[in-house]
Design a protein that fits this description.
This protein is of the alpha/beta class. The chain has one domain (6-159): HAD superfamily/HAD-like (Rossmann fold, 3-Layer(aba) Sandwich). Helix content is 35%, strand content 13%. A four-stranded parallel β-sheet has the order 3-2-1-4. It is globular and about 50 Å long. The termini are far apart. Bound molecules: magnesium ion. Magnesium ion is lined by residues 10, 12-14, 125-127.
Length: 164
């Protein structure tokens, strides 16, 4: 039986609806603690969850690749489990402490590491910059149809500040 390649899935904007907490990042005084503290309350993006469950049923190993910081690990694992999304050991890749590269740089780095042992079937991310960087590095990636539009403050936090 041929082993399927990894399906890499971003969380914020693909599975988790972050709309309700983006306002913490607006303006010059960004409230990172409030922004991250509210992550546990993110509504589920049903279309994304269904697609992940289907892919898992089809035999794709699922790896969540998120720009969320490592300190949100427990919250994030709990959230995924609560929403009936498969979480196997090692399946949640997060930003290490004080890793503040732009999301695209950080994610390409992780995908390269993951791809040293496995093929990558696809990566679903709502960030065009991440998708372009992965394509440039020779990996498949796409913005799924159900991806949410990002606020400019949230996009800045990911693409320039490297905070999430
Ligand atoms: Mg995202």
């Amino acid at each position: 039986m041929t082993e399927r390649g990894l399906l890499l899935v971003d969380i914020d904007g693909v599975l988790a609806d972050v709309t309700h907490r983006q306002h913490h990042l607006a303006g010059t005084r960004k409230n990172w603690n409030a922004f991250f503290a509210a992550a546990d309350a993110d509504p589920l993006i049903e279309a994304g969850a269904e697609a992940v469950r289907q892919a898992a049923d089809d035999g794709y190993p699922i790896v969540y690749l998120t720009g969320r910081p490592e300190r949100l690990r427990q919250v994030t694992e709990g959230w995924l489990t609560r929403h009936d999304l498969p979480v196997s050991p090692g399946a949640l890749q997060m930003r290490p402490h004080r890793e503040w590269r732009p999301a695209a740089d950080f994610k390409v780095h992780v995908v390269r590491t993951l791809a040293s042992g496995r093929t990558v079937a696809d990566m679903w991310d709502d960030d065009e910059a991440v998708v372009s960087a992965l394509h440039a590095a020779g990996f498949p990636a796409r913005v799924p149809l159900w991806a949410q539009p990002r606020s400019s403050a949230f996009a800045d936090a990911q693409d320039r500040l490297g905070r999430t």
